[in-house]
Design a protein that fits this description.
Number of helices: 5
Bound molecules: manganese (II) ion
Number of domains: 2
Structural class: alpha+beta
Helix content: 10-25%
């Protein structure tokens, strides 16, 4: 496969282990581009903001819940482009893998650039957008900070600020207004609920040919899944503990 904008994404991940989707460039969107924010309980809880642009999601890891107070700027660390398939991903990345931890779909919807050339604005480090999501609304700005000299050993990393613009959706003086939003916009589940079910999702996705020992585990975890599948009678709760590593 030739190098693409998703090569860094693919290199960081072992798709035999992680339930995340492999990176493929998606179709270009129409005028309304998608966005997603994933709340990610990795080493540190953060919010992954992803804006669809030219068949990939441009991505930032925001260290705190987005602030509705225009005076409170949030640090947004630029990370690798993600595939469009990632926009519906909710589940648990196994510990030990890149980004290990549970991912929750915290917001999604569409965004429009305020200017006529978002590619140029991104390159210049000042992108103004309008969100039409479930929790994110109205005008926001992404402003790149001057790069710090991180030394030759480290990968340069670009820090941005995510800032709410003053409009009818802003809440001056309430920087943490969105911190109480802790459920998935897709499933209504909390991170803990997603984590307890994901053990079933990623194990049962594995091919039994590739990994014969996955069979009894998958059966045991299926028992934890609500409604959709019939729980095998033989499932023992004790088997569940082995899945947590
Ligand atoms: Mn993340």
């Amino acid at each position: 496969m030739p190098a693409s904008r998703l090569t860094p994404y693919n290199k960081k991940r072992d798709f035999a282990v992680t339930p995340e989707p492999p990176g493929r460039i998606g179709k270009s969107a129409g005028k309304k581009r998608r966005f997603v924010i994933q709340r990610h309980a990795a080493t540190r809880l953060h919010f992954d903001l992803r804006l669809e642009l030219d068949g990939v999601y441009k991505s930032w890891a925001v260290t705190k819940p987005p602030s509705l107070d225009p005076a409170t700027k949030r640090l947004a660390v630029e990370v690798e482009d993600h595939p469009i398939d990632y926009g519906t991903f909710e589940g648990t990345i196994p510990q030990g893998e890149y980004g290990g931890g549970t991912v929750q779909l915290w917001d999604n919807g569409t965004w429009t650039p305020q200017g006529d050339n978002p590619q140029r604005d991104l390159a210049r480090g000042s992108l103004k957008v309008c969100f039409d999501g479930k929790r994110m609304h109205g005008g926001w700005a992404l402003i790149r900070l001057r790069d710090k000299d991180t030394g030759f050993r480290k990968q340069p990393r670009h820090n941005w600020l995510l800032i709410k613009e003053t409009d009818e959706y802003a809440k001056p003086g309430e920087p943490d207004a969105l911190a109480s939003e802790v459920t998935s916009v897709k499933s209504g589940r909390t991170l803990e609920e997603i984590a307890s079910r994901s053990r079933k999702v990623w194990h049962s996705n594995r091919s039994e040919k590739k990994e014969p020992e996955a069979k009894p585990r998958a059966a045991a975890t299926r028992a934890k899944a609500p409604a959709k599948r019939k729980a095998p009678a033989a499932a023992k709760p004790a088997a569940k503990k082995k899945l947590r590593k």
